[in-house]
Amino acid sequence: MIDISTLEQYFPQVNKPLIFGEYTFTILFRQEEDTFLINLKIKQRDTKKSHLIGFRFGIGKDKKQKDASHETDKPHSEIDIYKREKESFSATVYFTFHDSEDKTIFEYAKGTIVLIDKIIKQFIKNEKLDAIIIKKIIYDEAVLDELAQFEPALIDALYDCYKNSNLIVREGNNRVV
User: Fold this and answer.
1) What angle, 0 to 180 degrees and rounded to 10, lies between the N-to-C axes of helices 102-126 and 140-147?
2) How far apart are CA 139 and CA 68, in angstroms?
3) SS3 162
4) Structure pTM?
5) What are the phi and psi torsion angles at 134 (to 5°)?
6) CA–CA separation, 54 vs 38, rounded Å?
7) Which partner from 13, 23, 65, 136 sits 20 to 30 angstroms from 43, CA to CA?
8) How far apart are CA 142 and CA 145, in angstroms?
């Protein structure tokens, strides 16, 4: 089993929400004997007046769960999107990795940190938030200097999951693919 604790150094604060205006950013790290989780969660405060955004991206491995739409006990990446404008939409995409050697999964976890960095920066840019908050969420320069080389392996693995149908999409509570 991989030890993800060494990856916490790329974040000023983990497992605590960081609130900037109407958005809450949370970097989650959780590790147990045979499970792990690294997640970025972005949630918009619900004012009931405007659109609402909820987003989660990460990598993890959980205990086997009965009736789950994906293989929870295998390492996987997950993207969860919720958006409400006039109508609401939610979807979750699971990419299951079957090449689950610890060394490979740890490299995917490092690549996940790079994608989290890119997602944070793109989100802040798109929502016109002050770029100064990036360094309050993630140590951007250290991530790019030390982990950028692991992103291509993760992207290739996600593509292989898609190509080999190791991908599950769930819209709302319904399994789609």
Assistant:
1) 140
2) 34
3) helix
4) 0.89
5) -55, -50
6) 17
7) 65
8) 5
Residue spans per domain, the chain? 4-175
Going through the chain in order, the beta strands assigned E by DSSP cover: 18-20, 23-31, 36-44, 52-61, 76-84, 88-96, 167-171, 174-175
* Helix intervals (H) in the chain: 102-126, 134-137, 140-147, 151-163
What's the N-to-C CA distance of the chain in angstroms? 29
- Over residues 56-85, the pLDDT tens digits come to 999 999 888 777 767 788 899 999 998 887
Selection from 156, 161, 163 nearest residue 70 by Cα: 161
Query: CA torsion angle for 163, 118, 28, 69 (degrees, to 10)?
Result: -20
Name the residue among 128, 118, 42, 23 with its Cα closest to residue 82: 42
Cα separation, 116 vs 57, in Å, equals: 7
Q: Which residue has the tokens 């916490």?
A: 8
Name the token pair of 104: 């490979």
